[in-house]
Amino acid sequence: MLSNVIANQKVHEQYGGVVPELASRAHQSNILPVIDQALQQAKVSKSDLSAVAITKGPGLLGSLLVGTSFAKSLSLGLEIPLIEVNHMRGHVLAHFIGIDNRANHKPTFPFLCLTVSGGHTQIVLVKSPMEMTVIGQTIDDAAGEAFDKAAKMLGLAYPGGPLVDKFAKQGDPNRFSFSVPKVDNLDYSFSGLKTQFLYFLKAELKSNDNFISLNLNDICASFQKHIVKVLLQKLEIAAKQHNIQDIAIAGGVAANSGLRNGLEKLASKNGWRTFIPEFQFCTDNAAMIAVTGYYKYLNNDFASLNLAPQPRLKLGLT
Q: What does the radius of gyration of the chain's CA atoms come to, in whole angstroms?
C-alpha cells in the first residue's frame, strides 16, 4: 500500500446518523481531491496505474453511483481494466494489505473471519481470496447498529459505538445483565436486545431521572460485554464445527476493545491464532478495496463498463 486517503463526513453528526443524500453529495465533492492526494502521496502518476477497483456494493446507492461513475471514466480514459469489488469481501481481505514492505501477520487459508460493521454481522469461511462462504449472519440488526442505537438512547453523540467502548473501559461489565437471544445455527439477532435495552432504561429512569448520568460507565460496560459474548459464542462454535485455528475479525466494530480482548481470551483457551487489522483498515477504506482488486486482477476477473452498483449486494455474488 502506497497511500490510503480517507475523507471523513462529519456532516452526519448533527443528525445522529448517516443521511444518504448528504453522503452522496460529500462523495461527489471529495472524490477528485481525495484521488489526487492519494496519487501524490503514493508518488504515482495516472499513467502508472494498471487497473481501477471500485465498490459495487453493498452500500448507499447515491454514494456507490458517484464512485462507479468516476471509476468507469478513469478506466475508459486511461484504457485500463475496471474491477468490481464486494465491500464485504474487502473487509475480509484487509488482513492482506501490505504496509511499508513489512512482513504481514496474515491468516492461513482456510480461516474464519467475523465481519462486524455498522450494517453487517457475519461469520465467513474463507478458503482463498476468491472463495468465501457466509456460514452465519444477523437476521435483523447488525452489531454495529445495536451499539449506535444504544448510544443514541443514552444521549451520546453519533457515531456512538466508539463512545460506548470508551465509557465501557471505566465501568463494571457485570453490573447489569441482559438475556441472550435464541437464534438457530450460526446466525445472530440484535433487534431484541435493542428493545430490551430501551425498556431497561425506561424502567430505571422512572425511579431515577439521573440513572444514565450516574451509571453511564457501568451501563456501557454491561451492554458491550453482552454483545461481545453473543458474537464470540457463535464464532467459537463455528471454529469447532469447521476445525479451524486461524480466526480473524474485520469491519468497524473490530476496533472495539471489548471484542479484541474477548477474542484474545478465546484464543488462549482454544489455541487459536488470531488476526485483527490495524485500526485504519477496520473502518471503511480504499486500501481494502484495492487489495481485493489486486487478487481479482491476478485472476483476470474484470468488469464491464455496463457495471451498475448493487446497494444490497450479498457476499459471494462477486
A: 20
- Stated as kind and residue range, the H or E segment containing 126 is strand 121-128
Cβ 290 vs Cβ 1: under 8 Å? yes
Architecture of domain 10-93+282-298: 2-Layer Sandwich (3.30)
pLDDT at 24: 82
Residue type, 59: G
Three cell numbers at 246? 486461524
0.85 surpassed by pTM = yes
**DSSP-assigned letters across all residues of 164-208:** HHHHHTTS-TTSS--PPP--STT-B--HHHHHHHHHHHHHHHHH-
Q: How far, in Å, CA of 138 to CA of 151, rounded? A: 20
Question: Which of the four pLDDT bands, split at 50, 70 and 90, describes residue 48?
Answer: very high
| Omega of the bond leading into 110 within 30 degrees of 0 (cis) | yes
How many Cα atoms are found within 13 Å in the side-chain-facing hemisphere of 197?
A: 24
C-alpha cell at 160: 456512538
Find the length of the chain: 318
Determine the Cα–Cα distance for residues 141 and 192; give it in Å rounded to an integer: 9
Cα–Cα distance between 140 and 143 in angstroms, integer? 10
Environment class of 235 (CB within 10 Å of its CB; exposed 0-12, middle 13-18, buried 19+) = buried
**pLDDT value of position 217:** 98
DSSP states of 252-318 as a string? GGGG-HHHHHHHHHHHHHHT-EEE---GGGTSS-HHHHHHHHHHHHHTT--B-TT----TTPPTT--
For domain 105-276, give the CATH number. 3.30.420.40
Domain range annotation of the chain? 10-93+282-298, 105-276
Q: From residue 1, how far is each of 30, 98, 102, 223 by CA, in Å?
A: 21, 6, 11, 37
